[in-house]
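Q: Could you write out the predicted structure for this multi-component system? I'm mainly interested in how the pieces pack against one another.
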Amino acid sequence: AQRVTQPEKLLSVFKGAPVELKCNYSYSGSPELFWYVQYSRQRLQLLLRHISRESIKGFTADLNKGETSFHLKKPFAQEEDSAMYYCALSTYNQGGKLIFGQGTELSVKP
Amino acid sequence: DTGVSQDPRHKITKRGQNVTFRCDPISEHNRLYWYRQTLGQGPEFLTYFQNEAQLEKSRLLSDRFSAERPKGSFSTLEIQRTEQGDSAMYLCASSLGQGLEKLFFGSGTQLSVL
């Protein structure tokens, strides 16, 4: 069965420090990986997806199939990055549904 | 278009009562998903529709849960004989359904069963 694991419930860093939010998945095929973000009092929204290979708000994520990981990184955290981050997996034969990890709360302190 | 709309935002009910939630997706989106989220967890998939057809239901969706999307537009999720364990945030999302398009989420309905 597909599974997404985010080992850290809370990650606290100071402004300007590097950030890495970990995500590991289990799936034997070729999944599509996403990072969704939920800012305070806002709805869940897409941050980035691995197939796009883009950088959004300074965040990047690389799919490592050997380690089955899709860690989210940013070199210099900003206070406005404080939010809940969810890693999610989807597959082409499942109608686009997403399987989410438990989420990591990122807190960036001034 | 203001995005995915869910109603009500909050619902408090007594155990054993029936509740119904509504979701209005983005107008041209043919796929509609329901998720449930409890405190400290990520959203859990419940069911999804492509147009009016319900294509998949999670094992989480007991017989007390039923979802409809009669005209392929809005959807309703009904919970019969609510239990305290049903207390959660119920999220709706929609997508264009062309492969793995990104999902647009609503703000959710927070259900509290007393």
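A: Regarding packing and overall arrangement: The two ends of chain A are 41 Å apart (CA to CA).
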